[in-house]
Amino acid sequence: MKTAEEYNEISNKVIAAAIEVHRQLGSGLLERVYEAALAYELNQMGLHCLRQQPVPVRYKGVFLEEEAFKMDLLVENSVIVELKTVPQLQPIHSHQLKTYLRLTNLHLGLLMNFNVMMLKDGLVRVVNNFPGTLNEKISYLNLIIILRTKIF
Question: Which helix (H) or strand (E) holds 17?
Fold first, then answer.
């Protein structure tokens, strides 16, 4: 299991790559274009990145659907990146990412809306049972927290 610092390092690199993609392409393109460009940037940075990875659904230990959903990007086999090109992110978008995290038992996801003037306005960090001691007073067991990511 990765440490909080390792997750933060990966997410910082993903955000930096997304900013570069947004600078080069701007807004207004299809989601799959940003997905391809971001995967390219992440691979150039030396990060392992898989596109359109299936998210299986289990019920009482039985696989109901092997490919019920597909996550846009899986980075370093630990961070899910879900891309959007919508006028404004809605709660359902964060809920979708939380569901992917829960179904895959992963801890960190980044929701990115490329249909914004400044990419920082379209970033949401979603956490599911985050490992480590981000705050000793809070137990992260069984919590899902959405943090707005700030880029300075």
Answer: helix 4-25
